[in-house]
Amino acid sequence: MSLLGAIEAGGTKFVVAVANVDDPDTVIARESFPTLDGPTTIKQVTAFFDQYQDIAAIGIAAFGPIDINPQSRTYGYVLDTPKRGWSGYNFLGAMQAWRDIPYYWTTDVNGAGWSEYVSGAAKDVENVVYLTVGTGVGAGIIQHGHLLSGNSHPEAGHIMMRKHPKDKYVGHCPFHGDTCLEGLASGPAIEERWQESAKSLPDDHLAWEIEADYLAQALVTYTTILRPDRIIFGGGVPHRSILLPMVRESFARQLADYLPVDDLEHYIVHVEHGDNAGVLGCFYLAKSLLN
Amino acid sequence: MSLLGAIEAGGTKFVVAVANVDDPDTVIARESFPTLDGPTTIKQVTAFFDQYQDIAAIGIAAFGPIDINPQSRTYGYVLDTPKRGWSGYNFLGAMQAWRDIPYYWTTDVNGAGWSEYVSGAAKDVENVVYLTVGTGVGAGIIQHGHLLSGNSHPEAGHIMMRKHPKDKYVGHCPFHGDTCLEGLASGPAIEERWQESAKSLPDDHLAWEIEADYLAQALVTYTTILRPDRIIFGGGVPHRSILLPMVRESFARQLADYLPVDDLEHYIVHVEHGDNAGVLGCFYLAKSLLN
């Protein structure tokens, strides 16, 4: 039986998995291991897939920045990254050298966003922003059923931001300090700002008012530029259950009815596939290469 | 001989024109008149086109917001607008009732941006942001040769913004005050902030430092989300010759080398077609319907 492969290549851990081509929703086998340097990690990846002869295609959803421009000399490479042993590594080339099959090569957030579009929280719409807020902040954007890219993938965690008047934090982004979304609203930004684990901050802490303001502000910017049908939150930070209602309220205030959007309970939602989103997205993207 | 029609429908004035299908770059006849209410203005439009029997298609580039979703019940309508006599007016329907030919229906900024993409400042690239800064601020966005839209056209003049530390102005946007780009950087915002005509503000006035900061900030946001190959400035405000060099400098500082972009002299440029951009775009879009 023909199989699909998935490589969810995160900065902290890799998840590899296989599923039947006819049933991409059911994981047959799955392994995960910590992300080491490029060559060492890919050796573990290929060792896993070596167990399966009949892999028709593999989807790769990789931490960025990566080169996704097929015209580029470094297509398939991981670009400059603080992650040791990955800058300039030819990830896709290493896989192709291992076995010459079709690969769908994209970002981790595109993979997760795509799974939500195919069978998750956005399965009934065409235009989606999937926003993950965790160690970093990133977005996968789907417009009319296609992953959006210009000359490369979005880096929508680094949009410019207005500072909350009660926020004195200097920001966590090594490039943009407190001027970009990731610098202000990522998990590490919250913990460094309050010198406390985000989990231990109570619901009524100012931290969440500030976080909701930033996330809502970003959603207004995405909404005005991209006009999505739905915005989906993934990543660890939105696990805090009071956060999304606060984001919706702040979003309504900041957008100020300038544009029509769906009811906010349907417009701003949680991811449905949870931890499976990345692997599922890889399967779906791999399968799209076979049609 | 078969003709193309153009309707550049601005909030202040309308321009109508015709060109040969085989030579859309050469205007054969052109008229312009002030924008009155919907029905009165469209009567002047059709009176102009009544002079020509063989019009194969017409491109319409209209001030917004407009409904460009072909699935929508109000497709072809002008939506809620402060402009008297236009809210809820079926612009496209009125034209179709006049003559049943193909119409390309889009926004004024999409029309102008498209002309720059086809034969102007962006003719050699695929991913473009055309930003007009005048009475309002708006963008036409092209990704891989297609005008970008989600469930409607971009309203990228209303992205959220960080206030410049020296700027005390309350903002000009009736919806967003000083929190959005249009509220801070449009022509009327400059003049209200300084209580002076923008033209009379000297080159070394703080006004331009602030304006450049805002425009550059917006470009960083567009760049991170959309990854364009080029950003093109239209509208009256960028006529100030010192402005674009200041925008490039501020952009470099704010982006902080986070992403690779083209040399800034090629990345951030002026419109090439000037006042003809809108009409030319209409011709090109009309012609695209015939292929």
TrEMBL record, chains A, B:
A Gene Ontology MF term for this entry?
fructokinase activity
Q: Which SUPFAM superfamilies does the entry link to?
A: Actin-like ATPase domain
Q: So what does this thing catalyse?
A: D-fructose + ATP = D-fructose 6-phosphate + ADP + H(+)
User: What are its cofactors?
Assistant: Mg(2+)
UniProtKB keywords: ATP-binding, Carbohydrate metabolism, Kinase, Magnesium, Metal-binding, Nucleotide-binding, Transferase, Zinc
One Pfam family of this protein, by short name?
ROK
Query: Broadest EC class?
Result: transferase
Write the Enzyme Commission number(s) for this entry: 2.7.1.4
Keyword Nucleotide-binding present in the record's keywords: the answer is yes
Please give the family membership noted in the entry.
Belongs to the ROK (NagC/XylR) family.
Q: What's the protein called, per UniProt?
A: Fructokinase
**To which species is this protein native?**
Weissella bombi
